[in-house]
Amino acid sequence: MLIRRPGDILPSEITPKDVFLNRRQFMTAAAGTALLAGEAAAALKGIPSRYSASEQPNSRKEITSYNNFYEFGTSKEDPARNAGSLKTRPWQVVVEGEAGKPKTFGIEEILKLAPLEERIYRLRCVEGWSMVIPWVGIPLASLLKAVQPTGNAKFVAFETLNDPKQMPGLASRVLDWPYREGLRMDEALHPLTILAVGLYGEVLPNQNGAPIRLVVPWKYGFKSIKSIVRIRLQAQQPATSWNLAAPNEYGFYSNVNPAVAHPRWSQATERRIGEFLKRKTLPFNGYGDQVARLYQGMDLTRFF
Ligand code: MTE
Question: Using CA positions, which residue lies closest to atom 16 of ligand 1?
């Protein structure tokens, strides 16, 4: 008899897709946290399997109670405990720099730029743990294209909100605030790169980076910057918070790479949250087929 382990089965395979999505919409409405109500008429577009990790997602509890969001404290429990003070409406994102039509977007306008999609992605943290998360979001490309990048737009710089009144962790000097991240333009435009506004079919919990955060699944988790307020198109490679904090440990690219150890630990294996045994870390977090070509000819031990 052929027995598939639970880890091999997607929820969308267990339940017919239409039932699965309806149940989600029902649960969403019942929970009173309707992601889409009044904001985007688009329903979840379904499970685009091309982009989905073929693994069982972590539970909502795991995804929302074990977080890194240093603006709310440095322990894994701090964000769930403290992020209630973050006010996510109204929310604006400034998109500026090398763009023909720079613009400040209200969050509702961003939600209308493209249909919301569910993307089940692996997230591999540089610390050695991983999760599988069913995000809801839109391609970052749809926002960038809306402002018409100029030919000088080679990189994209991102910034998180920097408000000590809402973010108690900013009192600590652990990082140089605001939290900053960056991507090369081709990485930013890659179809795997999304702006997430929800998870498990519901609005993004504050501790996961509400109301809008980046998700770049083939890079270590710290690239996936939360609660974004500013996006700048620019010619130069942007400074990033973790690279500023420890340049020998965190490079600009930060592609998941089991062959390049962190100076203080190996990156060859990872522990999936909720599991006991470690698993092997995959190059580019398992997304190599889609993204390895972006780095052809680059020495990835140098550009780590
Ligand atoms: N974004 C901001 N603004 N501040 C942070 O401390 N932590 C990063 C990233 N984005 C962080 C951030 C790290 S180290 C990881 S692993 C992921 O968020 C964690 O995302 P999650 O809590 O949704 O799993």
Answer: 221
CA of 125 to the centre of ligand 1 (A): 9
Q: Which residue has the higher pLDDT, 50 or 208?
A: 208
> Does the CB atom of residue 225 touch ligand 1 within 6 A?
yes
Domain hosting 275: range is: 52-295
| Number of domain units in the chain | 1
Asked whether residue 147 is domain-assigned, the answer is: yes
**Sign, CA torsion 278/57/282/245:** negative
Does ligand 1 come within 6 angstroms of the Cβ of 123? Answer: yes
Q: Which of 124, 128, 133 is nearest to 284 (CA)?
A: 124
In a domain, 146, yes or no: yes
**Is this structure's pTM higher than 0.70?**
yes
Whether residue 129 has pLDDT greater than 70: yes
Find out whether the beta carbon of 70 lies less than 6 Å from any atom of ligand 1.
yes
pLDDT tens, position by position, 56-111? 999 999 999 999 999 999 999 999 999 999 999 999 999 999 999 999 999 999 99
Residue 130, ligand 1, Cβ within 6 A: no
The CATH number given to whatever domain includes residue 140 is 3.90.420.10
**Residue 31, both tokens:** 């929970």
What distance in angstroms lies between residue 3's CA and the mean position of ligand 1's atoms? 36
Q: Is the pLDDT of residue 245 over 70?
A: yes
* Residue 40: partners with Cβ closer than 8 Å, 6 or more residues away: 108, 111, 112, 115, 116
125 lines ligand 1 (CB under 6 A): yes
> At 288, phi and psi to the nearest 5?
-55, -40
| C-alpha of residue 52 to centroid of ligand 1, in Å | 21
2 lies in a domain?
A: no
Q: Can you read off the two tokens belonging to residue 281?
A: 């870390």
Q: Is residue 29 part of a domain?
A: no
